[in-house]
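Customer escalation, tier 2.

The customer says the design service returned an amino acid string that "doesn't look like it belongs to this structure." They asked us to rerun it and document both sides in this ticket. The original C-alpha cells are below, unchanged.
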C-alpha cells in the first residue's frame, strides 16, 4: 500500500481543518472518511481514550485500505474524579444534545468547587494504523482550569471554559493559529507527524 495518502478518521469539517493545519508539513495527501467513501460508523465502545483511538484507526484502515490516523480525546477534571473523561463527547447522555448543554452540565457539577480545585487537562491519544494493524500511538496533553462561565468564540466542545493561566484566556478566546500550536491535539499531532514522515 502507498503511504502517500493519509485517512483522517473523522467526518467533522472543523476537525479536518485542524488536521490540515496540524499536519501541514507532511508531504502526503489528507482525506476524510467522506473523501474515502467510507460510510461505516465505528462505535466508540472502548473504556479508555487509547482503546477508542486504536479501535477507530484499525477499523477504518481496514475498511479503506489507507494509512489512517485517529484520535480520541477529552477533558479530565480532577475534582470530578477525571470526568467527563472518555465520555466527554457524550457527557450527560441524551439529556445533552449540544456542546453548550455539556458545558452547562460540567459547570453545574462543579458548582461550589473553589478555583484552586478546578484544575483539569485535555488529553489526546492518537493512533496510526495500516490495514495490517496499529503502527504507533502518541499522547498529547494541555493543563488548565475550568472557569466559572464560557468565554470566547473560537474552538468547540469545552474550549470556552478551559482557562489557560499562562495566557489569561480560555482556549476559545485564542486565535485558531495559537490554539493549533499549543493544544493537546497539536501536541499529539507533532509527535504523529514525525512518525508519519519516517514512513514515507
Amino acid at each position: 500500500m502507498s503511504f502517500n495518502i493519509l485517512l483522517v478518521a473523522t467526518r467533522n469539517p472543523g476537525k479536518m481543518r485542524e488536521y490540515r493545519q496540524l499536519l501541514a508539513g507532511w508531504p502526503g495527501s489528507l482525506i476524510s472518511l467522506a473523501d474515502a467513501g467510507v460510510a461505516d460508523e465505528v462505535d466508540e465502545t472502548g473504556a479508555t481514550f487509547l482503546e477508542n483511538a486504536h479501535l477507530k484507526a484499525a477499523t477504518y484502515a481496514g475498511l479503506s485500505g489507507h494509512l489512517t490516523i485517529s484520535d480520541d480525546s477529552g477533558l479530565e477534571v480532577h475534582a470530578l474524579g477525571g470526568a467527563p473523561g472518555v465520555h466527554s463527547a457524550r457527557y450527560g447522555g441524551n439529556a445533552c444534545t449540544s456542546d453548550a448543554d455539556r458545558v452547562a452540565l460540567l459547570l453545574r457539577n462543579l458548582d461550589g468547587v473553589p478555583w484552586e480545585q478546578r484544575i483539569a487537562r485535555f488529553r489526546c491519544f492518537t493512533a496510526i494504523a495500516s490495514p495490517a494493524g496499529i503502527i504507533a500511538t502518541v499522547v498529547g496533553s494541555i493543563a488548565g482550569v475550568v472557569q466559572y462561565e464560557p468565554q470566547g468564540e473560537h474552538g468547540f466542545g469545552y474550549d470556552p471554559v478551559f482557562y489557560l493561566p499562562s495566557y489569561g484566556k480560555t482556549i476559545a478566546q485564542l486565535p485558531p493559529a495559537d490554539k493549533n500550536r499549543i493544544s493537546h491535539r497539536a501536541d499529539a499531532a507533532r509527535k504523529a507527524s514525525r512518525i508519519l514522515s519516517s514512513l514515507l
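Tier 2 assessment: The sequence is consistent with the input. The chain is about 30% helix and 25% strand. Residues 5-199 form a domain with the Maf protein fold (CATH 3.90.950.10). Sent an explanation to the customer and offered a walkthrough call.
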